[in-house]
Amino acid sequence: MRTLPSFSSKAFFAPMAGVSDPALRLICKELGAGLVVTEFTNIHAIIARDKTGDIQEFIEFSDQERPLSVQLFGSDLDALRKAIKIVEPYFEIIDYNMGCPAPHITEQMACSALLQHPDLTRQIFRTMVAATDKPVTVKIRAGVDKPDKYLEIGKIAEEEGITMITLHPRTVKQGYAGKADWSLIKKLKQEVAIPICGNGDVRTPEDAKKMLDETGCDYVMIGRAAAQDPYLFAKINHYLDKGHYFEISPRKRLDLFFRYLEYTAKYPTIKPANLRMQAMNFSKGLPGSKELRGRLLNAKDRDAMRETMRWFYDSFKD
Ligand SMILES: Cc1cc2nc3c(=O)[nH]c(=O)nc-3n(C[C@H](O)[C@H](O)[C@H](O)COP(=O)(O)O)c2cc1C
């Protein structure tokens, strides 16, 4: 029986393509995330890249992020086996994406399309577990049109030696609309014996505690709210431990942008568009963020963005 590494917190940072880059993951880690996961990566791209270059330049990460999970997608069993062999030396956990609803991905019989194919899913889990000694985890949605697939897939995962299931309890049809139905996390936890990570619509420390208490899940995974305020991890940890937490001043939150700029400098794949998006995320909801948005759209490079954020930062008192 494989076990998960030990985590410093029950609150994990969700994989988000185009968002959870190594710089933001490191900030989340420093602020208390128990686990961070790479953006989803195509198994065929890993194999192609391995032939021509260094895989660590393709999937960027730093040792300070550990324990670190790499998320894969793609359903060709041979390619899956090969891709796992390539990435496994670098990561503590191999995660498998069965949640992405984007049509250009599901058309390739990958990600959430697999929820409708339990036999192939079983073969995929079996292949993955046989290909590595590292824990293999899976991230799923509730179903395609209806929330009717997660229990079947969850049981297959347990039978095939998957070490943890993360459930985002929305259907594929829902995309990100409507509400995540946390009662499905509770149901899954009752039906399978492996660790369950609940995900979806956790925005505050109170939400995190409520999800843990109401569903019995072992961990909570947070995406969008943590990308806007990575201090959420520090607040959650404090709240779970002491029953209260401290608000973070706008300046403290905005300071994270300058840390983000510093960390991104060593990752060539992080482009000005990513910096702009992150600047908008860190300032979301603050007074004046609308004007800032306009200014950021005109800021074309790192220096211009730093200057624009400095102007915004200076508009707040400590
Ligand atoms: C922009 C964006 C990109 C995402 N990319 C991934 C991904 O690469 N892999 C994955 O498993 N989920 C991905 N997700 C889903 C999130 O991991 C998470 O399940 C979802 O956002 C719900 O959690 P939240 O309410 O805390 O944001 C993505 C979500 C967003 C908004």
Question: Can you describe what's shown?
Answer:
The chain has 318 residues and is an alpha/beta fold. The protein folds into 2 domains: 232 residues, Aldolase class I (TIM Barrel), CATH 3.20.20; 65 residues. It has 15 helices and 9 strands. Strands 1-2-4-5-6-7-8-9 form an 8-stranded parallel β-barrel, surrounded by 7 helices. The N and C termini lie far apart (50 Å). Flavin mononucleotide (FMN) binds next to α10.
User: Roughly what is the average pLDDT, rounded to an integer?
Assistant: 96
Strand-residue fraction? Answer: 5-15%
Looking across the biggest beta sheet, what order are the strands in? 1-2-4-5-6-7-8-9
| CATH topology-level fold name of the largest domain | TIM Barrel
Alpha-carbon distance between the two ends: 50 Å
Helical content stands at 40-55%
Elements, N to C (H/E) = EHEEHHEHEHHEHEHEHEHHHHHH
Q: Label the overall shape.
A: globular
Instruction: Tell me the CATH superfamily of the largest domain.
Output: Aldolase class I
Characterize the biggest β-sheet: 8 strands, parallel, barrel
Labels describing this entry:
318 residues; alpha/beta; TIM Barrel; 9 strands; 47% helix; 14% strand; binds flavin mononucleotide
Summarize the structure.
The chain is built from 15 helices and 9 strands. With 318 residues, the chain is α/β, with parallel strands linked by helices.
List the helices and strands and how they pair.
Blueprint: E1 11-13, H1 22-30, E2 35-37, E3 41-42, H2 43-52, H3 55-58, E4 68-73, H4 77-87, E5 93-98, H5 103-106, H6 118-131, E6 136-143, H7 150-159, E7 164-171, H8 182-191, E8 196-199, H9 205-215, E9 219-222, H10 224-228, H11 231-242, H12 250-264, H13 272-283, H14 289-298, H15 302-314
Parallel strand pairs: 1-2, 1-9, 2-4, 3-4, 4-5, 5-6, 6-7, 7-8, 8-9
Helix pairs in contact: 1-12, 2-4, 4-6, 6-7, 7-8, 9-11, 12-13, 12-15, 13-14, 14-15
Flavin mononucleotide (FMN) binds at residues 14-19, 39-40, 71, 97, 99-100, 139, 168, 199-202, 222-225.
